[in-house]
Design brief:
482 residues; 7 strands; 52% helix; 7% strand
């Protein structure tokens, strides 16, 4: 009997909470899990007495759905997704919809969309952010793929998604192909950057002698101002959390970071599109360096840096840290939006950049107060080349510049690494410089490889070669960008 509005495969933490969210909004949900005992356990536990249809196989799940069938799955990215699609396709009809809600790589989503199209099935890659709490109470959802699927998914997805304080829904159609998972990937990359910058801030505060209670108070105060965000909020809570014996839990956690690959994907995409995603790149590399725990412990015994103890006004430097963190966050988003703009051009996606900021304003891990300003910037000027050129952000950067520089200089003097915040400042200085030393770099490339260069006194697109040694002749390499 076809009674369910939507089906979901994968009853791990995210899947289970997401279907409870759907049911609470009035939808009947069919559920299936590869380990079928999990279905029985769910139906007898959290789902007891609610509008769920338990299924013992993918075929059972298909049979329980209203047409056009809508099947969402939250399974491990990679082969598991392909295997599941292969299982489902023979039992589906033209117009049925498959939604991958996991953290899949966007080229895989584009490929799967093509495979499904051959059967007339509509494929959607939907990024879902917010963790287990967000899945239950309202996540940010970023769907993209087959446009014809959206009218059928919209009532469900927008009903379960997070909302801003103004009531705006944090879910809308992203665009074509693999764009939904691309935007989620960039979200995760920005998340890497935000987390790393907060950790750098924490590191410098510790070096200044602030204890956990004092840092907890600082982050709490910051969360009431322009740095208001989910990650600042949970950092405050983490710094104040104690074990039963009264010791701080954070002080007992091994300083070796893990990662699942979405940050690396973001950096790889930036390299492919020729974008300077320096801050997120440094955040990924910082996790790699942290994982070298044993090697770092050994190096600490033999590498003794010449450092200058901080003798200035500690309270002022903490205030400066707030400005430095804010400015660096702006750079992170500016770089992320540059990457999305470049990808949209490369893949012929029609991305609503202001709408993406709205999707990130609630429910997701990077939700923060200034995302409303990003939405305004792109709503005012959809062709905005760089977020830094918007009047609001231009003024914000001008206000933060001196505190930002003071923080970086103090950290360098004290031997405290600030790779992400330092990279942010370097990007800002590079972006605002009308003439960089790349003229010398081009001369070097031409000297050793005859790679040619353009001249200031000649039209752009006209390439030249110099016989620097007198022995090289006039033959030059072709000019291209890798």
């Amino acid at each position: 009997m076809t009674t369910a509005d939507i089906g979901l495969i994968g009853l791990a933490v995210m899947g289970e909470n997401l279907v409870l969210n759907m049911e609470s909004r009035g939808f009947t949900v069919a559920v299936y899990n590869r380990t079928t005992a999990k279905v029985d356990e769910f139906l007898a536990g959290r789902a007891k007495g609610k509008k769920f249809v338990g299924c013992k196989s993918p075929v059972d799940l298909v049979a329980s759905l209203k047409r056009p069938r809508k099947i969402m799955f939250l399974v491990k990215a990679g082969n598991a997704v392909d295997e599941l699609i292969t299982q489902l396709l023979p039992h589906l009809e033209a117009g049925d919809i498959l939604v991958d809600g996991g953290n899949s790589h966007f080229p895989d989503s584009a490929r799967r969309m093509t495979v499904c199209q051959q059967k007339g099935v509509l494929f959607v890659g939907a990024g879902v952010s917010g963790g287990e709490e967000g899945a239950l109470t309202g996540p940010s959802i970023m769907p993209g793929g087959a446009d014809a699927a959206w009218p059928h998914l919209k009532p469900i997805f927008q009903a379960i998604a997070a909302r801003t304080k103004e009531g705006e829904v944090c879910c809308d159609w992203v665009g074509e192909g693999g764009s939904g998972h691309f935007v989620k990937m960039v979200h995760n990359g920005i998340e890497y950057g935000d987390m790393q910058m907060i950790c750098e801030t924490y590191h410098l505060m510790k070096a200044l002698g602030l204890n956990n209670a004092e840092m907890c108070e600082v982050f709490g105060a910051w969360n009431k101002g322009k740095l208001d965000s989910y990650l600042i909020e949970i950092t405050r809570d983490i710094l104040g959390f104690k074990d039963p014996d009264g010791s701080y839990v954070v002080d007992r956690i091994l300083d070796a970071a893990g990662q699942k690959g979405t940050g690396k994907w973001t950096v790889n995409a930036a390299l492919d599109e020729g974008q300077a995603l320096t801050l997120i790149g440094e955040a990924v590399f910082a996790r790699n360096l942290s994982a070298m725990k044993d090697e770092r412990v050994a190096a600490a015994k033999v590498l003794k840096p010449a450092v200058v103890p901080f003798t200035g006004d500690k309270k002022q430097l903490v205030n400066d840290l707030a400005e430095a963190l804010y400015a660096s966050k702006i750079i992170s988003y500016a770089q992320g939006y540059q990457l999305m703009r470049a990808a949209a051009k490369a893949y012929n996606w029609h991305l609503n950049l202001g709408g993406i900021a709205l999707m990130w304003r609630g429910g997701c891990i990077i939700r923060s107060a200034f995302l409303g300003k990003i939405k305004q910037a792109f709503d005012t000027n959809p062709a905005l080349e760089n977020l830094l050129l918007d009047p609001f952000f231009k003024d914000a950067m001008a206000e933060a510049q001196l505190p930002w520089r003071r923080v970086i200089m103090a950290a360098v003097g004290m031997g405290i690494p600030m790779p992400a915040m330092g990279a942010a400042l370097a990007y800002f200085d590079g972006y605002r410089t009308d003439r960089l030393p790349a003229n010398l770099l081009q001369a070097q490339r031409d000297f050793f490889g005859a790679h040619t260069y353009e001249r200031l006194d000649r039209p752009r697109g006209e390439f030249h070669h110099t016989n620097w040694t007198g022995r090289g002749g006039t033959t030059s390499s072709s000019s291209y960008n890798a």
